[in-house]
Amino acid sequence: MSIRRITRHLLQHHWRRRVAFPPDALVRIERAIKAGETAHSGQLRFVVEGALDGAPLFHNQPARERALDVFSQLRVWDTEHNNGVLIYLLLADRDVEIVADRGINAKVGAEGWEKICKEMEIDFRAGNFERGVIKGVEAVSRELAAHFPRRGDGSNELPDTPVVI
């Protein structure tokens, strides 16, 4: 367990999340998710967490493990075609993770998701959080459209609203 990481999470707390993602930015991200879902049958969720607290922090939970927990809690895995994708951003660690269900993950793979994360991180380092997330949403949507094009009524299985923790 790193004292430096604990301090960063405790001091940063949730204020940075509100600065990086004001309500109007979250609305625009939701619109980008909805727009992307017009081209594919996949399901995309975005979650931003300012900092860990409690057990996840004191058990030194890495961002990837936290993203997997959130993926499960939000039931992103529970889609008809196993094509749910979570973009998870942990601001205190400056870490973005993409977790994908087995249907889409088998087609894109870890390298494909990592490439999208790296592109997002370029904008994040420049302080352009909204732009980075929207670029990530668009890139994930392109992958979903390539492998799971929209068919039928295109029912929306999961909410498009960003989740703020």
Brief sketch in words of this structure:
The chain is an alpha/beta fold.
Which class in CATH terms? Alpha Beta
Beginning-to-end CA distance, first to last residue: 22 Å
CATH-level-2 architecture:
Roll
CATH topology (level 3) name: Diaminopimelate Epimerase, Chain A, domain 1
Count of distinct strands: 4
Strand content: 5-15%
Describe the 3D structure.
With 165 residues, the chain is an alpha/beta fold. The protein has one domain (3-164): Roll (Diaminopimelate Epimerase, Chain A, domain 1). It has seven helices and four strands. The chain has helices at 3-12, 15-20, 23-36, 54-58, 63-73, 102-125, 129-147; strands spanning 43-49, 84-90, 95-100, 163-164. A four-stranded mixed β-sheet has the order 3-2-1-4, with helices on both faces. The protein is globular, with a radius of gyration of 15 Å. The mean pLDDT is 92.
List the keywords:
single chain; 165 residues; alpha/beta; Diaminopimelate Epimerase, Chain A, domain 1; four-stranded mixed β-sheet; 7 helices; TPM_dom; TPM domain-containing protein
